[in-house]
Amino acid sequence: MMQEKGTISIHTENIFPIIKKFLYSDNEIFLRELVSNAVDATQKIKRLASLGQFGGEVGQPQVEVSFDKDAKTITISDNGIGMTADEIKKYINQIAFSGATEFMEKFKEANDANEIIGRFGLGFYSAFMVADQVEIQTLSYQDGAEPARWICDGSTEFEITEGTRAARGTDVILHVNAESEEFLDKFKLQGILDKYAKFLPVPIKFGTKTEYEADGEDADGKEKTKEVEVDNIINDTNPIWTKAPSELKDEDYLNFYKELYPFSEDPLFWIHLNVDYPFNLTGVLYFPKLKNDFEFQKNKIKLFSRQVFITDEVKDIVPEFLMLLHGVIDSPDIPLNVSRSFLQADSNVKKINTYITKKVADKLGELFKNDRAGYEEKWGDIGMFVKYGIISEEKFYDKAKDFVLLTNADKKNFTLNEYKDQVAATQTDKDGQQVWLYTNNRDKQDAYIQSANRKAYDVLVMDSPIDNHFISHLEQKLEKTSLKRVDADVIDKLIKKDDAPAHILTEEQGGQVKIIFDSAINKPAFKVELESLSPDELPVTVTMDEWMRRMKDMAAMGGGMGFYGSMPDNYKVVVNGNHKLISRILQTEDEGEKSRLAKQAFDLALLSQGLLTGSELTEFVNRSVEMI
Ligand SMILES: Nc1ncnc2c1ncn2[C@@H]1O[C@H](COP(=O)(O)OP(=O)(O)OP(=O)(O)O)[C@@H](O)[C@H]1O
Predict the structure, then answer these.
(1) Are residues 515 and 613 in the same domain?
(2) What keywords appear on the UniProt entry (predicted)?
(3) Is 9 annotated in some ligand binding site?
């Protein structure tokens, strides 16, 4: 009779309690590890059969998870390869537990349980996170194999005896410890299985469920149904990312998306990833509807390794800007259980990053090329994503520069090159620089947009939160081009041409105008300047310097420009010396009337900027009433 007691060859007696404590925070992963082992065991028998090394009946592979609240056990059963007593000694005692020895030497470096489990081959050992005693009942596929039973209480002592299992395969029986009784619950276990095992390649049975089946007709000829208990298979063994794109319809992708993210709107489009060299990777990435908010949810991509869910924290594996995407990535080549710094240095991870970036860029390029109208329709959703990618990833810019769109105030879209051509004739200044004008608030800057339009200049709309950064990035990339917000100066100054209108005021008159306005405005933050603009421009315009405003915007967004943030707002008051109102002011005899007209013109400029508020607004209204 088979009977053996032994000691697992580990020097440190107290190793198990230490590991147990270390792993405790993430203890639900015991189920992932044991179910994965069971799945592996069923796949091994299939492989042996296909290699001709097993001539028996393989049968339908199946794994079953069950629990017994009274006996306080959780059992993971499979009809896989099984183990002989010798194999238990070799694989469980030595392999599974030798990892523990190594762990003891290095455990100080580890940050979380996931890191330890895979790195040290502690998969099976994770059972002790929730169990006082772990029992194995197993029967090997080998001819003439005897059933074997192994039991261990988490100390270094184990016992192997004759087992009771009659059919090929393995039961791992966990005698759940007092602190882990929460796991003896249908919903708890179902939740963990849903999380980790939902797409495993072998059917996982967890209890039964009731279904209704047609059962002939009743006396009145109505169709009858009867209740039947059927196996509750918790997983989809053939998720779409394991299939060939040619087998799939749009509907399949949409249904899968719904399955992953039940409460989300339909995605815009998707990319099926499939590569087997130089690394192995499959997956489906979806472009969600983003709209214009920056509140997108990250950590929506799920990472799998051979259909076992690993994590939804894909940082480092997916380029930062692609974290906006949803979907799944499955790769056995990603080192899943190692530390972050190691992951960043890993050459496979770098290649995966590059590959995904390229695929995403190619997909967008293809959509743009094949269906420009459809692409433009989606631009509201994908625009921010494309801009974000351009800013954060050089390689992405190289491709995206051909399909990133600029939208003007007439809602027309242009690629960068198209826009260059569009404005070349009109918006090239006297030094040969193109000046692209933009607004970030069409309502507030309407007067400036109209000034630009009078000159036949085009104005782009750049009003999403990412546009500040996008604009600076474009300026670095585009040659001989600068972008200026339409209210950064008077239009003749934004795009300087040689044909500036002549002065109609003498220098002396100009000096007088400045004095009149300075004293009428009487605010240190507003600096008066006299310019000769065309007579049909407004008499007074208030602007804030483009550069200063950008610095302040960045400070406001926390971009490390704190110094500028604390500067007071400084405005330029441009007085158009060529406007007839200015001549009228000069000709007015009465000093009070001069000042009143100047104040009125200045207030109108503030008003068009939305800067006139409170008592000053009231004063303006009263003065206006008086004047009419
Ligand atoms: N259900 C099972 N049926 C057959 N063999 C098993 C079963 N569970 C575990 N084993 C054997 O025990 C070994 C050790 O398992 P363990 O989970 O500790 O490590 P692993 O699966 O090799 O690696 P890891 O889980 O760390 O990725 C396995 O490699 C396998 O040979």
Answers:
(1) yes
(2) ATP-binding, Chaperone, Cytoplasm, Nucleotide-binding, Stress response
(3) no
Together in a domain, 575 and 603: yes
In a domain, 144, yes or no: yes
**How many CB atoms are located within 10 Å of the residue 35 CB?**
25
Least confident stretch, 127-141, 265-279, 357-371? 265-279
* 30 CB near ligand 1 (under 6 Å): no
> Same structural domain for residues 481 and 533?
no
Report the percent of the chain where pLDDT is more than 70.
Answer: 86
| Ligand 1 within 6 A of CB of 118 | yes
Residue 343 to residue 349: CA distance in whole angstroms: 7
Does residue 284 have a pLDDT over 80?
Answer: yes
Q: How far is the CA of 222 from the centre of ligand 1 (A)?
A: 54
- Neighbour-count burial for 274-303, b at 16+ CB within 10 Å, e otherwise: bbeeebbbbbbbbbbebeeeeebeeebbbb
* pTM score of the predicted model: 0.75
The overall longest dimension of the chain from CA atoms, in Å, is: 125
Is 627 annotated for ligand binding?
no
Which of 448, 474, 499 finishes a domain? 499
CATH number at residue 488: 3.40.50.11260
Q: Residues of the chain with pLDDT > 90: what percent?
A: 49
DSSP 95: I
99 marked as binding residue: yes
Residues 37 and 169 in one domain: yes
Q: What value of ipTM does the predicted structure carry?
A: 0.97
* Domain harbouring 140, CATH code: 3.30.565.10
d(CA 140, CA 506): 106
Q: How many domains does the chain have?
A: 4
**Which of 19, 29, 31, 40 has most ligand 1 atoms within 8 Å of its beta carbon, as the pocket-test mutant?**
40
**Structural domain includes residue 561:** yes
pLDDT above 70 (res 562): no
Instruction: Tell me if 124 CB under 6 Å of ligand 1.
Output: yes
Q: 154 and 301: one domain? A: no
Instruction: Determine the structural domain holding residue 43 and report its residue range.
Output: 3-206
Residue 83, marked binder: yes
| 137 in contact with ligand 1, CB cutoff 6 A | no
Question: Is any atom of ligand 1 closer than 6 Å to the C-beta of 81?
Answer: yes
- Confidence grade of residue 468 (pLDDT, cut at 50, 70, 90): confident
Ligand 1 lined by 261 (C-beta under 6 Å): no
